[in-house]
Amino acid sequence: MELGVVGAPNSGKSTFFNAATLCNAEVGNRPFVTIKPNQGIAYVKIKCPHVELGKQCKPVHGYCKNGWRFVPLKLWDVAGLVPDAWKGKGLGNQFLNDIMVSNGLIHVLDASGSTDTNGNVVGPGNFDPAETVVFLKREIQYWIKGIMERSWHMLRHVKDEQAASVLAKQLSGLGIDEESVKRCLSKINFASRLFEWTDEQKLELAELVREECKPMVIAANKMDLKEAQQNIAELRKKFPEEIIVPVSAEAELALRKASEAGLIEYTPGDSDFKELKEISEKQKAALDFIRENVLKKFGSTGVQQVINTLAFDVLHMIAVFPVEDQAKWADSKGNILPDAFLLEEGSTALDLAYKVHTEIGQNFVAAINCRTGQKIGKDTELKHNDIVKIITR
What we know:
It is built from 13 helices and 14 strands. It has 393 residues and is of the alpha/beta class. Among the domains are: 2-37 and 78-238, Helicase, Ruva Protein, domain 3 (Orthogonal Bundle), CATH 1.10.8.470; 317-392, Ubiquitin-like (UB roll), CATH 3.10.20.30. The strands form 3 sheets. Strands 1, 2, 3, 4, 5, 6 and 7 form a 7-stranded mixed beta sheet that branches. A 5-stranded mixed beta sheet has the order 11-10-14-12-13. Strands 8-9 form a two-stranded antiparallel ribbon. The longest helix has 20 residues, at 130-149.
C-alpha cells in the first residue's frame, strides 16, 4: 500500500513525512523546499497476535514494540501544491503526477493559519485554513477532469453504458479501474448524454472519482497552537464530511528522534514516554513541553492516528499473517509471525496466497485458520489479524 503526503507549500508536509519515516527530507521555512518526491517507509500500528501466543514474534519486515506490530507501507512526500497547479502553475503538473501511485492521501494542513495557500508565512491566526482545504481538493478535481476530457470526444460514439470503459482507460494511469468509474457514474443522475455534459457536470464526476480512488484524511498540523485549536473546531463545522485529525508533526519527530537516540522509551501513537537517562536542561524542557501541551491535551501527536485512520477506516484495509507452522504460528525456520500483509477488506485466502507469491497462488489448494484450526477454501473472506496457513499442491 502506498500513501501520499500532500498540501500547500510550507505547511509541514516534510516534517510529517520525516516524523512518520525517520527519513531526512529537507525541511525549510519557504515554499517549494520539496521538489522531487521523497519516499520512505511508514507503518500502520496494530495489536500483535504474539501476545496471545505468549512468545515474542520475529518480523522480517516492520517491527514489534511493546505488543504493537508496525506493518510497513510506502509513504510519498510530494511537492507543494499552489492555486492553479492543474494549469501547471508552480510545480503543479509534477505534483499531480507524483500522487497517482498513492492509494490514499494525507493532506497536511497548517491549521494555525500561519501560512497561506502559496506557502507565504503570515503568522498564526492570519489566514483561514478552510481556504486551503477548498483549493487543494479543487486542484485535484480539475486535474482529473482534464485527464478525462482527453477522451471525452469518444463518448459521442458509444452508448452511455460503455462510457465507464472509455473513461477508465484514460484514467488507468492513476490506478483507477472501470468498476470504480461505474460506481461514480451510478451516483449521478443527469438526463443528457455524457458527451453533452457541462463543465460543472464533469467536475462533479471528477470529485466523485477523487473521493472513490484517492480518498483523503486531513492532518491538521500545529495543533499545540491555540489558533490551530480554534481553527480545527471551525473546520469541523465547515467540513463535516471530512476526516480531520489534530496533529503535531514536530512533536512526533522530536519524540522519535529522542527514542532512536536512546534518551526516552516511546512507542509511536502512545500518550506518554519514559525518560531513560539524564538529559540536558534544554532537552528536558522540550520534552516536558511536548508532554504537557501535546500528549496530555490530545492523547498523542496524531501522526500515527492519521496513518491508521486512512489505512483502516478510509481505505478499509486489514492485516493478515501467513505462516507455515499452524501450531507455532511460525515459518519453516521457526520465526514466529514473520510476515504481515495489508489487504483490502473482503480479500480471500486465495488473494493472500497470491500476495505472498504468484506460485503459491497458482498452486493453492486450501488454507487453515490457525486460531480455530478450521480448514477454509479459496473464497473464504479473511478478517483483520487472521493467522493463516496456506496449503499448496
